From TrEMBL:
GO terms for molecular function: DNA-binding transcription factor activity; sequence-specific DNA binding. Residues 1-58 form the HTH lysR-type domain. The gene is dmlR_16. SUPFAM superfamilies: Periplasmic binding protein-like II, Winged helix' DNA-binding domain. InterPro entries: LysR-type_TF_proteobact-type, LysR_HTH_N, LysR_subst-bd, WH-like_DNA-bd_sf, WH_DNA-bd_sf. One of its GO terms (biological process) is DNA-templated transcription. PROSITE patterns: HTH_LYSR. Belongs to the LysR transcriptional regulatory family. Keywords: DNA-binding, Transcription, Transcription regulation. It comes from Duganella phyllosphaerae. This is HTH-type transcriptional regulator DmlR.
Length: 308
């Protein structure tokens, strides 16, 4: 089997479609189907489960996809090992990250990146949910906060200072809280992964001890951009990263309250697959992200990547 066959299989697996893979690769759909059938014959097992509505990886296909990506990455490393580190980035890179992080911290810099590297095929997915890196075809994930257990490799990027934020319209209607006791008369817009089970509370540090102050819920959401919009419309106080809300704070659309009762800084982590090497184009994009967000980050102690 050759590398071109492996690339075709990877694209089908990532997109879940023979037709979309053929369109992106610029080849006939029949060619894509033939390549996958040939690979299945060579490995002696079914790699994809086909139905009239979807194409899904079999358990054997999931293992094969991981190994394919490793081989393609090794080939790209070999081809680019003598190229200058600052050379042009070309090829496909897919990264998933939180919505506001992408919108506020990366968007202002993307035009310069894409202008400098016109051959870069960059895909940014903005999710606040957990994703399957292998099944959904991502090269890396960026996550804020505590990490669930997984088989991914974690690379710390720093941490973001947090704040308690409200709109001027909300403060005009409910008053500005000056102590935690004042929160009894206020409403909270808060992020909740599980909208059924999480209680409304403002989380903060009191004399170095974590504390949760119960509050009346205005709105529970599972999307950071919608939480910000709700806060802007005066629905309640929210807790968010100061860096991802800096534009709104500087324009006066949001105001920080109770600055002495902030959450501890939230860690920002890059999550990578368990591969020996990253493709050079992926490594260069990730280094670019680390560089452009550095002015907004608080430092974290230098550590080696760890599995989480």
């Amino acid at each position: 089997m050759d590398l071109s066959e492996l690339r075709i299989f990877c694209r089908v697996a990532e997109l879940g479609s023979f037709t979309r893979a053929a369109e992106q690769l610029g080849i006939a759909k029949g060619r894509v189907s033939t390549v996958v059938q040939t690979l299945e014959s060579k490995v002696g097992g079914r790699l994809l489960q086909r139905t009239t509505r979807s194409v899904r990886l079999t358990p054997e296909g999931e293992l094969f996809l991981v190994r394919c990506k490793e081989l393609l990455t090794d080939a790209e490393q070999l081809q680019g090992m003598f190229q200058l580190a600052g050379g042009e980035i070309r090829g496909r890179v897919r990264i998933d990250m939180p919505n506001l992080f992408a919108q506020e911290m990366l968007m202002p810099h993307l035009l310069a990146l894409l202008a400098a590297h016109p051959q870069l095929d960059l895909g940014i997915s903005t999710n606040d949910r957990r994703v399957d890196m292998v099944r959904e075809g991502f090269d890396a994930l960026i996550r804020l906060g505590a990490l669930p257990d997984s088989d991914l490799v974690a690379r710390p990027l720093g941490s973001l200072a947090m704040g308690n934020l409200a709109s001027p319209a909300y403060l005009a209607a409910y008053g500005t809280p000056h102590t935690l006791a004042d929160l009894a008369g206020h409403r909270l817009v808060y992020y909740a992964n599980n909208l059924r089970n999480e209680e409304a509370a403002l989380h903060c540090m009191v004399d170095g001890v974590p504390q949760a102050v119960p509050m009346r819920s205005a709105l529970a959401v599972n999307n950071s951009a919608f939480m910000q919009a709700a806060c802007l419309h005066g629905l309640g106080i929210m807790q968010g990263a100061l860096a991802t809300n800096r534009r709104l704070i500087e324009s006066g659309q949001l105001v920080e309250v109770l600055p002495a009762s902030r959450l501890p800084p939230v860690p920002v982590t890059l999550l990578l697959p368990q591969r020996r090497h990253l493709a050079p184009r992926v490594e260069m994009v990730l280094n670019w992200i680390a560089r452009v967000i550095r002015p907004s980050m608080q430092e974290v102690p230098a550590t080696s990547p760890v599995r989480v």
